[in-house]
Design brief:
Elements lengths: L2 E9 L2 E9 L39 E4 L5 E4 L1 H5 L8 E9 L8 E9 L5 H14 L1 E9 L2 E10 L2 E7 L21 H14 L10 H14 L20 H35 L6 H8 L9 H29 L1 H41 L1
Helix pairs in contact: 3-5, 7-8
Length: 373
């Protein structure tokens, strides 16, 4: 950044060489005056009132106009001979709490940059002293031909200076306050507090000039030959007599609604994500039934035990049959051998059982024949 003034900070017997840099910039869009008939630019020419001739810059000087209209010439040499100790010095005169400075006195803002390596040490000393004391420095300095009042404070790691208006340059607010006596009720104050709490805080960095952006879009549209659509005017309700309580209540409701809509969108997004996460989770019913099945109960009847045993036996036979079927598909030869062996065993069992049955019949029928004889 280009410096606009070089000098020093006078801090008691300490002198700190510094450069003055503009801390703010103007982003306003500037327009030129043109002749509507042909679009030619209108320029201002410096013309002498006496001979009506145009005068160049080298022929123009300064003068003070007295109350009766007399012009008193003042040259640069006259001003240079005046005793001005702050011509090249920012002279600190006091350190005061920041809340003692009236914001109405605030003017242009500047950054103070240490001018050279030797200035780094005293510059840092003043900066840290301001930080630790939680105070600001009140100083005098001269800029653009006049002595001014300034306030030095710390911004990040830089000493900033705000130009201040002199106390006698602040006008008293006479005739500005409402003439009539107005009484504000507690209910109105409560609603105003509720509206303030609902609106909450704002990030100052997010604020921008909407009007300047609209002007830039208008210029771009005209430059490209596009048709400019007139914007819809919004009725701000200025000048209308309104019910203050109703207006405050409506404002609170509108502010809460806008905030709840923003929070609701965030919650719906989180809820959708939660549902997607839970979609893959399923309860395992088999494990639940196995856990609930074993219960202690009173002894059951013999018939129930038999039916349970037969059911278990059938289940075991089914499992054995399924296993034998699966093993038969994998190895056919072994299954044939096992099946023939099983058939032979079953045949032997049937023969032995039939023999035992016939023997029993013979034993039982023999005595009957003897009785009949």
């Amino acid at each position: 950044m280009r410096s606009i003034w070089n000098g020093a900070i006078s801090f008691g017997l300490v002198s700190i060489p510094i450069k003055l840099v503009n801390a703010t910039e103007n982003h306003s869009i500037h327009f030129r005056q043109i002749h509507l008939a042909d679009g030619g630019r209108i320029r201002y020419r410096k013309v002498c009132e006496l001979d009506e001739e145009e005068v160049s810059g080298g022929e123009i000087g300064k003068a003070y106009e007295d109350a009766d209209g007399t012009m008193i010439p003042i040259t640069d040499e006259d001003l240079a001979q005046l005793p001005l100790p702050t011509a090249k010095t920012i002279e600190i005169v006091a350190f005061v709490p920041a809340d003692e400075i009236d914001p109405l006195q605030m003017d242009a803002a500047y950054y103070l940059s240490a001018n050279g390596v030797p200035a780094a040490k005293p510059y840092t000393l003043l900066r840290e002293a301001l930080k630790r004391s939680n105070k600001v420095a009140v100083a005098k300095y001269a800029l653009r031909g006049r002595e001014r009042l300034g306030m030095l404070r710390v911004v990040d790691d830089v000493i900033a200076m705000h130009g201040l208006l002199w106390p006698d340059e602040i006008r008293a607010p006479e005739g500005v306050a409402p003439d009539s006596d107005v009484t504000v009720r507690d209910a109105e104050l409560d609603l105003a507090d509720a509206l303030m709490d609902t609106l909450g805080e704002v990030d100052m960095d997010s604020l921008h000039d909407d009007y300047r952006e609209a002007v830039e879009e208008l210029i771009a549209a005209k430059a490209s030959g596009e048709a400019v659509q007139p914007s819809e005017s919004q009725d701000s309700g200025g000048g209308k007599v309104i019910d203050l309580i109703a207006a405050l209540e409506s404002s609170v409701r509108a502010a809460k609604k806008s905030r709840n809509e923003g929070e609701g969108e965030a919650e719906s997004t989180e809820g959708a994500e939660g549902k997607e996460d839970m979609a893959d989770v399923h309860p395992i019913k088999k494990k639940t039934q196995q856990k609930s099945a074993p219960q202690k109960s009173t002894p059951k009847s013999t018939g129930t035990k038999k039916s349970t045993a037969s059911t278990a036996k059938k289940t075991t036979q089914k499992k054995t049959a399924s296993k034998s079927t699966s093993s038969a598909s994998s190895s056919a030869s072994s299954s044939k051998g096992s099946s023939s062996a099983k058939a032979t065993n079953s045949a032997k069992k049937q023969t032995s059982s039939s023999g035992s049955r016939s023997t029993t019949k013979k034993k039982t029928t023999a005595p009957r024949k003897r009785a009949s004889a």
